[in-house]
Amino acid sequence: MANGVRGEVVARLAGAERTLCLTLGALAEIETGLGVAGMAALAERMRSLSARDLMVVLAALLRGGGEVVLADGLASAPVDPREAAGAVAKAFAAAA
Q1: What phi-psi label fits residue 77: left (phi over 0), alpha (psi between -120 and 50 degrees) or beta?
Q2: What span, in angstroms and rounded, lies between the C-alpha atoms of 94 and 89?
Q3: Which residues pair with 9 in a beta bridge?
Q4: Which of 18, 96, 93 lies closest to 59, judged by CA?
Q5: What confidence score (pLDDT) does residue 53 get?
Q6: Which range marks the domain in which residue 91 is found?
Q7: Contact 48, 56 (CB under 8 A)
Q8: Following CA atoms 86, 91, 57, 33 in sequence, which dihedral angle do they give, to the nearest 10 degrees?
Q9: Which of 30, 31, 74, 82 is 20 to 30 A from 47, alpha carbon to alpha carbon?
Q10: pLDDT one digit per residue (tens) for the chain, 96 residues
Q11: Neighbour count for residue 22 (Cβ, 10 Å)
Q12: Measured on CA atoms in the order 82, 65, 7, 25, is the torsion positive or negative?
């Protein structure tokens, strides 16, 4: 069960309910993975994510939610791109 106070959300990915969370660690991982520094640069980059960028962001949010196995195997997981984008949007909205 997701802890809404912590900013956790649940999204269906790879055929199961998964927990995602935008933690400080996830945020740092996203900045590093996308090669940006700071919230302004991250916000600009998030406006037009490539498929690779989406995978970086999704993996970080999954790790933040404790879904390490899926995060580490994301490249070969059967994740629908629309589900991935929706999960990322849901996680960022919960953190706002």
Answers
A1: beta
A2: 9
A3: 20
A4: 18
A5: 95
A6: 4-95
A7: no
A8: 160
A9: 74
A10: 778 778 899 999 999 999 999 999 999 999 999 999 998 999 999 899 899 999 999 999 999 999 999 999 999 999 999 999 999 999 999 987
A11: 24
A12: negative
Q: What is the DSSP string of 5-66?
A: GGT-EEEEETTEEEEE---HHHHHHHHHHHT--SHHHHHHHHTT--HHHHHHHHHHHHHHTT
**What's the structural domain count of the chain?**
1
Nearest to 59 by CA among 93, 23, 35, 95: 23
Residues 6+ apart with CB under 8 A from 58: 13, 20, 71, 74, 79, 84, 87, 88
